[in-house]
Design goal:
Largest sheet: 4 strands, parallel
Order of helices and strands: EHEHEEHHHEE
Number of strands: 6
Structural class: alpha/beta
Strand order of the largest sheet: 5-2-1-6
Number of helices: 5
Shape: globular
């Protein structure tokens, strides 16, 4: 056997083939949807996955306001944030977040499943979440994906 066949191939950022993917969040469970979206954003669904390179696809999520949570998570779950001031800890339930900004819930779930470093912040910029069934990225001809 040739020694060349055993070497791992890493792709650089210039060799990456990025596609556009369209995901419909209508009646989808939030956690299951966001884990699949995070996998596509990271590029783990491709055979050319390289951990230190942004090799994932651009993902468009539509119908973010129709996402579902199972059980009593709409009222029992708490999302904490901190303003930076003394006594500035704030909490909100998913219902309160959904009433203010429906796409924020999907964005938060996906962002928290990405790496917490420079690469994760770069990968997060490839996510586009929209309320309703329309989006302005028709020119990119996104591939429709069923999750």
């Amino acid at each position: 056997m040739d020694a060349q066949s055993y070497k791992t191939k890493f792709v650089s950022h210039t060799q990456v083939q990025k596609n556009w993917v369209l995901v419909d969040a209508n009646e989808a469970i939030l956690g299951r949807l966001s884990s699949q979206v995070a996998k596509i954003l990271r590029g783990k669904n491709k055979p050319s996955f390289t951990p230190h390179v942004d090799c994932g696809d651009n993902v468009i999520v539509i119908n973010a306001e129709k996402v579902q949570l199972s059980g009593n998570k709409w009222t029992d779950r708490n999302h904490l944030r901190y303003t930076g001031y003394p006594g500035g800890q704030r909490s909100a339930t998913p219902i309160e977040i959904m009433q203010k900004n429906p796409k924020k819930l999907v964005e938060m779930a996906v962002k928290r499943m990405l790496p917490k470093n420079r690469l994760g912040r770069k990968i997060y910029t490839n996510l586009y979440v929209y309320e309703g069934g329309s989006h302005p990225h028709d020119a990119q001809k996104p591939l429709n994906v069923k999750l």
